[in-house]
């Protein structure tokens, strides 16, 4: 299977998204301040959306593999880890210094979207269509 590692990574991201959401809804509900609960939920939301986006890129890669797609996947995986992971840690621990990691993760998520644009542009150029 092509990209088996990426498929496994996206499956684990999906499972972790559901587990984090359930943990937040059941174990953390009522124990965190509303502000920290919002922080935790933001981490879950960004992880969910980027997991779905990774699925879409993998489906595109199945139909038309391009080198740039792996960059997209890698940037999003690293971005989710740092962005969502730091928000989870911040919400649970309350240690504000962990929030300093969040913008790095956010930057990687943004770079992933820009890399997707480049991959799409190159795909269009390679096919000879304007």
TrEMBL record:
The keyword Transmembrane helix applies. Keywords: Membrane, Transmembrane, Transmembrane helix. It is a multi-pass membrane protein. It holds the Pfam family DUF423. The chain crosses the membrane at residues 43-60, 72-91, 97-121. It is found in: Membrane. InterPro entries: DUF423 (IPR006696). Belongs to the UPF0382 family. This is Membrane protein.
